[in-house]
Amino acid sequence: MNQSANSPEIIFVGAGPGDPELITVKGLKALQSADVVVYAGSLVSTAHLAELKPGAQTYDSAPLTLDEVLAIMIPAVRAGQSVVRLHTGDPAIYGAIQEQIEVLEQEGIPYRVIPGVTAAFAAAASLRQELTLPEVSQTVILSRREGRTPVPENEKLEKLAAIGGTLCLYLSIGMMAEVVSELLAGGVYTGQTPVAVVSKASWADEQMVEGTLADIAEKVTMAGISRQALIIVGEVLSARQNGVPVKSKLYDAGFTHGYREKK
Ligand code: SAH
After folding, report:
1. How confident is the model over 51-66, as pLDDT tens digits?
2. Yes or no: domain 10-114 corresponds to CATH 3.40.50.720
3. Burial class (CB in 10 A: 0-12, 13-18, 19+), 198
4. Ligand 1 center to residue 44 CA distance, Å?
5. CA 90 to ligand 1: nearest atom
6. Where are the beta strands (DSSP E) in 25-153?
7. How far is the centre of ligand 1, averaged over its atoms, from the C-alpha of 89 (Å)?
8. Which ranges in the chain are annotated with CATH 3.40.1010.10?
9. 110-133 tens-digit pLDDT
10. What is the pLDDT of residue 257?
């Protein structure tokens, strides 16, 4: 049995969107002390693997099934090793962690989750854009268009689009024409609604394309973006060109709140 100084458990770690410095301090420490690391090789930067201690075992989960991933992690923990399951972005968003957690619960294996920076927030940072502006939008929806994974009827894009607000779409860039027509069908967004697409946010080869619902599909094609991109839709995006229509109450001199009297 390989006894480790760490308590044997599985830690789901959000690696962040790509830039290896965008992992949390806690996530990095877990990585540095792990005996076994199973990482999503298709999306997680291999630069994270340089942080591992000598002798740590690594497995790319890209070609593996759920059972194969569990067959690596569970015996390792039972042998006293600490395991990190490294997911891209935040593990709670399209991370498929619940199906792993279910088995760990059944098997009585200790585990915890360390969050990460999800792609939507990395994309907003790259754009240098706030996603919530007073009287423009106070709502951010994280969603996707239906692909091979079905989407519940009430969450079809056309229905989400009827809410308006700021919409961040994952896993949808390959269906841009359908995305645009379904968003327009919602009846709130128009051909003039601004859209930004950020591909590989925070990576060295990041690309950003901005336009409107009327022209974004063509711009994305022209830019050659076909995968690993986040689509942000909504009027908040026009603030960088047109200014902020209403300033926040939080920093309004005439507004009293728990930490400041009005001036
Ligand atoms: N758990 C991840 C999402 C995994 S699903 C997270 O929280 O970010 C994979 C999708 O995430 C991709 O299809 C793409 O839409 C988005 N994505 C992941 N990393 C990205 C990045 N660096 N830039 C833009 N989109 C990204």
Report:
1. 999 999 999 999 999 9
2. no
3. buried
4. 10
5. 7
6. 36-39, 57-60, 83-87, 111-114, 140-144
7. 6
8. 10-114
9. 999 999 999 999 999 999 999 999
10. 83
Residue 30 tokens read as 């877990």
Hey, which CATH number is domain 119-242, 3.30.950.10, 3.90.79.10, 1.10.3720.10, 3.40.640.10? Answer: 3.30.950.10
How far apart are alpha carbons 168 and 143 in whole angstroms? 6
Q: Report the residue among 88, 118, 207, 232 best suited for mutation to probe ligand 1: largest number of ligand atoms under 8 A from its CB.
A: 88
What is the rounded CA–CA span in Å between residue 110 and residue 129? 39
- Distance, CA of 239 to CA of 123 (rounded, Å): 16
Instruction: Give all strands of the β-sheet with 111-114 in edge-to-edge order.
Output: 57-60, 36-39, 83-87, 10-14, 111-114
- Which atom of ligand 1 is the closest one to the Cα of 203? 22
Place of tokens 């919602």: 186
* Model-wide pTM > 0.70: yes
